[in-house]
Amino acid sequence: MSPLKIKQGSTSHSAYNLRPNFSDVEERHTLAVLVENEPGVLARVIGLFAGRGYNIESLTVAEVDHTGHQSRITVVTIGTPQTINQICAQLGRIVTVHEVHDLTVEGRAVERELALFKVAGKGDDRMEMLRLADVFRANVVDSTLESFTFEITGTSEKIDAFADLMRPIGLVEMARTGIAALSRGEV
């Protein structure tokens, strides 16, 4: 009797199969969706995620072609490769969707986010706020005698790190735009 052979990527769920099934590993993906800029399109795209129980980590939408009336939706979501492929296929079936790109699969992408931080404090805390802002290249966009509002752009990790440092000093409020992303290099 020959031993059981399991092909890589097999979905066998045997207790003896100690190799992880990499198709079950969830990954973070950034999707770029070019759509018609008309009422209800965003609701249909978001409805696809909500109706199937997919989570959205970040969502940005803006018109990118005024004459062609097209908008770009950038969605960051988490799922298995099969789930992400299913999301892309289902997005592509929506009539008002022109293009769907999985920037994570297509190659390296540039991702940036904008955030505003309101931080309150007095005395030495104000000096520490300004020092940290300088290190993170954050700009002061509003200042009072008791608070600063900083603007910072960068990766989500950079913004998270800035928030972690500002929290104990006196972070009052934060607003984030969500991720904007483009693939690197030429078309």
UniProtKB/TrEMBL annotation:
Q: Pfam families from the entry?
A: ACT_AHAS_ss, ALS_ss_C
- From the UniProt record, give the pathway where this protein acts: Amino-acid biosynthesis; L-isoleucine biosynthesis; L-isoleucine from 2-oxobutanoate: step 1/4; Amino-acid biosynthesis; L-valine biosynthesis; L-valine from pyruvate: step 1/4
The reaction(s) catalysed by this protein are:
2 pyruvate + H(+) = (2S)-2-acetolactate + CO2
Cellular component per GO? Answer: cytosol
EC number(s) reported in the record: 2.2.1.6
Top enzyme category: transferase
Q: Tell me the GO molecular function terms.
A: acetolactate synthase activity; acetolactate synthase regulator activity
The record's section on InterPro entries has: Acetalactate_synth_ssu, Acetolactate_synth/TF_NikR_C, Acetolactate_synth_ssu_C, ACT-like_dom_sf, ACT_dom, AHAS_ACT, AHAS_small-like_ACT
Q: Name one GO biological process term.
A: isoleucine biosynthetic process
UniProt cross-references to PROSITE patterns, sorted A to Z: ACT
Keywords linked to the UniProt accession: Amino-acid biosynthesis, Branched-chain amino acid biosynthesis, Transferase
On the tree of life, the source organism's domain of life is: Bacteria
Instruction: Provide the family line.
Output: Belongs to the acetolactate synthase small subunit family.
Subunit annotation: Dimer of large and small chains.
Matching NCBIfam families, A to Z? acolac_sm (TIGR00119), PRK11895.1 (NF008864)
Free-text function comment from the UniProt entry: Catalyzes the conversion of 2 pyruvate molecules into acetolactate in the first common step of the biosynthetic pathway of the branched-amino acids such as leucine, isoleucine, and valine.
Name the chain's protein: Acetolactate synthase small subunit
This chain's source organism reads: Octadecabacter temperatus
